[in-house]
Automatic annotation (TrEMBL):
Keyword Ligase: no
Gene Ontology terms, MF aspect: heme binding; metal ion binding
Listed SMART domains: Cyt-b5 (SM01117)
Name recorded for this polypeptide: Cytochrome b5 domain-containing protein
């Protein structure tokens, strides 16, 4: 009786080991083969090509934003914000040109307009 039990449990043990081995061979995780999307790199020259109120990109903290849709809503006078279209504008954004930073709300808004990272000139 004990011998039968021993043989039976050994058999069950090895079946389980084999089953586990099979899952490793045949089971592939859902995200296998998924390639992470790389973010678009925008050069300073490309950035400079979007310098009008209707087509306005700004690079802030290394990230490029297409803020064209937001500009009509921006609370300052247009002549304060428009000269920064097509430019590296981190300092202007961080000081509002008067030594005061934008609020966290503005940061959240800005993030929605992210279109890529500022690259180096070729
Ligand atoms: C880089 C050039 C920019 C300059 C020079 C600038 C300057 C200003 C100024 C003068 C004001 C009004 C006065 C004040 O609130 O103190 C203001 C307010 C504001 N701006 Fe800008 N701005 C710039 C870009 C942006 C961008 C790209 C966004 C968002 C997409 C933005 C969002 C806001 C918001 C939400 C306010 C209301 C007050 C606050 O939340 O700080 N601004 N900005």
């Amino acid at each position: 009786m004990t011998r039968k039990l021993f043989i039976y449990s050994t058999l069950v043990f090895w079946i389980m080991v084999a089953g586990f081995g099979m899952t490793q061979v045949f089971w592939t995780p859902d995200d296998a083969g998924v390639v992470q999307a790389r973010e678009t790199i925008i050069t300073p020259a490309e950035l400079a090509g979007h310098a009008t109120p209707e087509d306005c990109w700004m690079a802030i903290r290394g990230v490029v934003h297409d803020v064209s849709a937001y500009l009509p809503e921006h609370p300052s006078r247009p002549d304060i914000v428009l000269p920064w279209c097509g430019k590296e504008s981190t300092e202007a954004y961080e000081t509002k040109m008067k030594g005061r930073p934008h609020t966290p709300y503005a940061d959240e808004l800005l993030a929605k307009y992210r279109i890529g990272m500022l690259g180096k000139a070729p």
